[in-house]
Amino acid sequence: MTDTLLVTGASGQLGRGVINHLLETLKVSPQRIIAATRNPENLADLAARGVTIRTVDFDDTASLASAFTGADRILIISTNELALPGKRLKQHEAAVAAAKSAGVSHLLYTSMPNPEPGSPVLFAPDHHGTEQAIKASGIPYTIFRNGWYQENLFMALPHAIASGQWYTSAGDGRIAHGARDDMAAAIAAGLASSATESTTYTLTGPNAHTMAEIAALVTEVTGKPIEVVQLSDEALTEGLKAAGVPEAFAPVIVSFDTNTRSGRISMVTDAVETLSGRKPQPLKQFLEANKAALVS
User: Fold this and answer.
1) What is the pLDDT of residue 86?
2) How far is 242 from 152, CA to CA, in rounded Å?
3) Left if phi > 0, otherwise alpha if psi is -120 to 50, otherwise beta: which for 164?
4) Are 295 and 222 a contacting pair, CB within 8 Å?
5) For residues 264 and 120, what is the distance between their CA atoms, to the nearest angstrom?
6) For residue 25, how many other CB atoms are within 10 A of its CB?
7) What would the DSSP string read from start to end of 83-110?
8) Which of 1, 55, 133, 183 is the most exposed place for a label (fewest CB within 10 A)?
9) Is 59 contained in some domain?
């Protein structure tokens, strides 16, 4: 197989992970890989290995068209543009249109679980709209609905460990947090495959836990007791703002808990292992590996 593989967001953590697995795990020739980013200077090490580096700006249609030229299979990693509602969807729609114009044979995209209308997650419409644009393009596709990363727990756990209290509105909802590198391995395998059919995968960790169960695991690993304090969405929003979270971002964080409480992210799938051939990392193993960082 000699398809040219392009990864957008290549200087980000997920993009870097995907390219690392293409090169190291799957032994894809660097000459077949295009790393597209707004910050090409950050990818000098990949360029030195023979990976083609292209500048791409999702707000610049011309740069998208130029970057996608000659690529067979393109992975669009969703952008982090959340400050202006609707902007990210426009960026993604422009990328899909550029891929169609470039004659791409297969389009891959990183979405989120259950982004359909009705999702409490405030940025879910970006993902749903992008999925719809991909399907409307007529390009065969693979959609990866990435679950919540284990690494996202760094946003809350260090403070919870230090204070002994973890404030949440997630109730008894469950999340199967997955390791970012596990998802990167699965996505790389999908990108490098010869699959041509349109498919959607939901990528998760191996077990779904409630907040109380996560807190118990943290206590077991660190020896630090944590009390889970359940709040209303409104009280949690005000608490986050009082703690210094920007007013516009606090509702986004709370919407994750609302989503968890609703049961929309409680699924556990075998997609990571099916795609990558490796078993996903359990949450306790992640906590043990990051114990020092969590309690520092």
Assistant:
1) 83
2) 21
3) left
4) yes
5) 9
6) 16
7) SSTTHHHHHHHHHHHHHHHTT-SEEEEE
8) 1
9) yes
